[in-house]
């Protein structure tokens, strides 16, 4: 019964949290409306989601978010230093192909979004077979280290989180 009312419970929680953050004030009416949105939107979109995301270890999500937040802050500082102080001639932009071991669409989307959220990198394309991401880096003097960092810091953690 609950699964029928809440086909995507994590999406429901995210929608409630995002709505409350957008409203930027705590009021019962806002919470009620956020809850209505959090229930109705997943119900209306459920037919378009043939499979639900299977999380193997949802308890590892906060640690993943902490790593991503740390990397976003660090990358902001790095990009600021590059833009402000690095001569253009020393800049080494690069297109990098990241081979993936992830198979679940939600995990791939999370990885691509994480890469794009981190300043200085942008996910541009997913290969036709869904096994690689094309990423543009603002400054990548060693592209292999970028691939290794993405695979160890993000993909390995996502493999633990998603079934």
Automatic annotation (TrEMBL):
Name of the protein described by the UniProt record: Na+/H+ antiporter subunit E
Source organism phylogeny: Bacteria, Pseudomonadati, Pseudomonadota, Alphaproteobacteria, Rhodobacterales
Localization per Swiss-Prot or TrEMBL: Cell membrane
NCBIfam families tied to this protein: PRK08965.1-2 (NF006518)
Family: Belongs to the CPA3 antiporters (TC 2.A.63) subunit E family.
Organism, scientific name: Paracoccus aestuariivivens
GO cellular component: plasma membrane
Extent of the signal sequence: none
UniProt keyword list: Cell membrane, Membrane, Transmembrane, Transmembrane helix
Topological category with respect to the lipid bilayer: Multi-pass membrane protein
Bilayer-spanning residue ranges: 6-23, 30-49
Entry GO MF terms: monoatomic cation transmembrane transporter activity
